[in-house]
C-alpha cells in the first residue's frame, strides 16, 4: 500500500534504529514527549519500544482529546439528549467514554437516540433527513477536527438549518504543552510534535518551545519509520546543543498550516477564557466556543446545561502519568480497578490514551506461563 | 464464541441442581445489555461465562466451544445453534440466508464434525416483502444443496412492524464427528503451529462498506462459504495432528486466539507479515483505525496443528480449491501466558487483546 509500506520497510527501519543507537549518548537518559495520542497509539501498536535503546524514554503527552475531556462534559451533553426529540451524535471514540451516569452507549441501551457519525457533515445530513427532530453533534478534538466542525456550522447557517446544533468541546494543543512545561515536576528533553494538528496549524506555533524553553521539536508522521526518523532528528539537535522546530512530516504538514481550515475556524470559533482538562485541571485560553453569530447552533446556549463537575477519583494518578512523572503501570489503579472496559481515569478511556495503549499492547508481554 | 456451550453429559441437566445455583456464581454485573454483549468480544464472553454458563451449564468442566459433542446411546453427535441478524440482508458475496446455513455448518466443521441435518427458525417483521423472503429462502436452499445437507424442521414467527429488522434466522445443526479428530484447547502444546485458511477481514469490511454509512468503496466481497471441504482435505493428511480449530467470526482472529490462549494457558506468537490480508481490507482498516485481526470472517478457519503435521496440513489446504492462501501464521509458546503476541518484521512486538466493545454494526 502506497505511503504505508515504504514507511514500514524493515531495512530502512533497522537503519534508522542503528542511527539512533549511534547518536544516543550512553551516559545520558533521554526523555522525549510525543504530544499526540495518535503517536502514542502508533508507538505501542508498532512495538517501537522494543527497537529503541533503553536510555530513550518516550513520555506520552496530553494529545488524546477523548482522554482530556472532563466527565462532566459528557453528562452535560447527554442531558440534552434526554429530550426524546433530540438525536445525540458523536464520533465512535466517544461512545464508550463514561460520564457519571454512564457512557453514550449505555444511554443508548436505555433508549436515548445515540448515533455514531464519521464526520460532523453526517450529523448535518441526519438533521436534513429528520426535520422533525433536533440533531446535536457532540464535537471533540484538537485543531485536527475543529475545521470540519466549523465548515459544518458554516453550511448549517447558510442553509438556515436550525434543527442542528454543536456541543463544542474543541481544545487547542499549544496551551496544554505550555501547562506541561510549566509543571514543576516535569523534566523533558524534547518533543515529537503532533502530526495531524500540524496539518492545520503548521509548525510555527511551536517555535516558542524551542526559543524560550530550549527544547527541540520535530513534527512527525505516524508510521514506524516516521517516528524513528523524528527521534534521529531530535537526537542530532540535542547532540549539537541546538533547539529548533523541524518538520519530518513534510509530505502532509505545510510549515504555514492550512489557511482555508484556519479561516473557517476563525469564522466560527473564539477562545474560551478557560477550560477544564481531565488530569491537568483548568487551563486558560485552551478551548474553543462558538461565536455569537452562531449562537443559534450552539447547544450550550440553546439548551439548559447542568454544568456538571465531576472530579476523578483521588486514587487515579492520571495527572502524573500525563506529565510523565509516572509510567502507566505505576499508577495504583492500573489494570486492577482501571481497565479499558471499566476506565476510571482519563487515560484509560480511548485507545489513544497512554494507559489504554499500554494495557492493550504491552502489559501482558511479561506474564510467564505456569503450565 | 457462539452461544453454544458444551454439555457435560448427554442426560438432561437436573433441575434441582439448577435451582440450587448460588447467587455468587452469577458474575455478570453489567446493568443493561448493550450491542457489545453481542459483538463476540470481551463483553460477550462476560455475559456467557458470568450469566448463561453458571445458570444453564453449571459445573461444566470443558472450555467454551463452537459446538458440543454428545454421546447419544453409542453414537457421538455434535450439535450447535446460531442466530443471524445481519444488516443489510444482502451484501456483495452473500446474504443472510446463505450465512445462516454456512455459519452453522462451519461451527460444526471447526468442531471436527460434518453436518447431518439442520433446523431453521424465522422471525419475520410484519410488512416484509415476500420477494425478499423468497430470495433468502432460495439462498438457504442453494447452500444446503451445495453442502448436501437436509433441513429437517422449522418454525416461523411474525412480529409487529418496527419490532424487528426485516428478518432474523436461527439455525441449529447436528453432525457426526469426522473420524480421528479431537478438538480440545487443553491438548495444545508449546511448539504447535497456528494455521490460517486464507485472507482475513473480507466479511466484516464488506458489511461495513455495504451499509453505505461511509463514503468508501472497494472491490471486495464477503468470504462466506462452507469450510468443511477444506477441513476434510486437511484431516486426510493431518487428522492426528489437529489439536484445535475455530472459525474467527465476530471479534476476528484476535478474539478466537485470545480465547484459545486463555483456555490452554499458553502464549500465541503470531508473525504479522505472514497473516494474509487483502489490500482493500488493509486500506479500509488503516483509514478507519481498525485492526484487521478484530474484523469478522465467515469463510475462514484457524487450526492449531502439532508441528510434525503442520506442513502436511498446509499443503493439503493449498491443494484444495479455496485454500490456496492457507499459511502458518504463528506458533504456540509458553510465554506470554494466556496472551496473543504479534511480532513485526522490523523487530517490534505488541499484545493483541480480544475485541473490546463493538467496532462494527450487526455483521452476521
Task: Write up what this structure looks like.
- The complex is a heterodimer of chains A (371) and B (364).
- Chain A has 371 residues and is α/β, with parallel strands linked by helices.
- Chain A folds into 3 domains: 136 residues, 3-Layer(aba) Sandwich (Rossmann fold), CATH 3.40.50; 131 residues, HypD, alpha/beta domain 2 (Rossmann fold, 3-Layer(aba) Sandwich), CATH 3.40.50; 42 residues, no CATH class.
- Chain A is built from 14 helices and 13 strands.
- In chain A, strand 8, helix 10 and strand 9 form a beta-alpha-beta unit.
- In chain A, helix 6 crosses helix 11.
- The longest helix of chain A has 17 residues.
- The mean pLDDT of chain A is 91.
- Chain B has 364 residues and is of the alpha+beta class.
- Chain B has 3 domains: 64 residues, no CATH class; 113 residues, PurM-like, N-terminal domain (60s Ribosomal Protein L30, Chain: A); 167 residues, PurM-like C-terminal domain (Phosphoribosyl-aminoimidazole Synthetase, Chain A, domain 2, Alpha-Beta Complex), CATH 3.90.650.
- A 7-stranded mixed β-sheet of chain B has the order 9-11-8-12-10-13-14. Chain B has a 5-stranded mixed β-sheet with strand order 1-2-7-5-6, covered by helices on one side.
- In chain B, helix 6 crosses helix 9.
- The longest helix of chain B is centred in the middle third of the chain and has 18 residues.
- The N terminus of chain B is likely disordered.
What is this structure's SSE topology?
The complex is a heterodimer of chains A (371) and B (364).
Chain A: H1 10-23, E1 30-36, H2 37-45, E2 56-63, H3 71-80, E3 86-90, H4 104-109, E4 114-116, H5 120-129, E5 134-139, H6 146-159, E6 164-168, H7 173-182, E7 190-193, H8 196-201, H9 207-211, E8 217-219, H10 224-240, E9 245-247, H11 259-268, E10 269-271, E11 274-277, E12 281-284, E13 288-290, H12 299-302, H13 318-322, H14 354-361
Parallel strand pairs in A: 1-2, 1-7, 3-4, 3-5, 5-6, 7-8, 8-9
Antiparallel strand pairs in A: 10-13, 11-12
Chain B: H1 15-19, H2 42-56, E1 68-72, E2 75-84, E3 90-91, E4 94-95, H3 96-109, E5 113-125, H4 130-147, E6 150-159, E7 167-177, E8 193-196, H5 202-210, H6 228-238, E9 242-246, H7 252-264, E10 267-271, H8 279-288, E11 302-305, H9 307-318, E12 327-333, E13 340-343, E14 349-351
Parallel strand pairs in B: 5-6, 10-13
Antiparallel strand pairs in B: 1-2, 2-7, 3-4, 5-7, 8-11, 8-12, 9-11, 10-12, 13-14
Helix pairs in contact in B: 3-4, 6-9
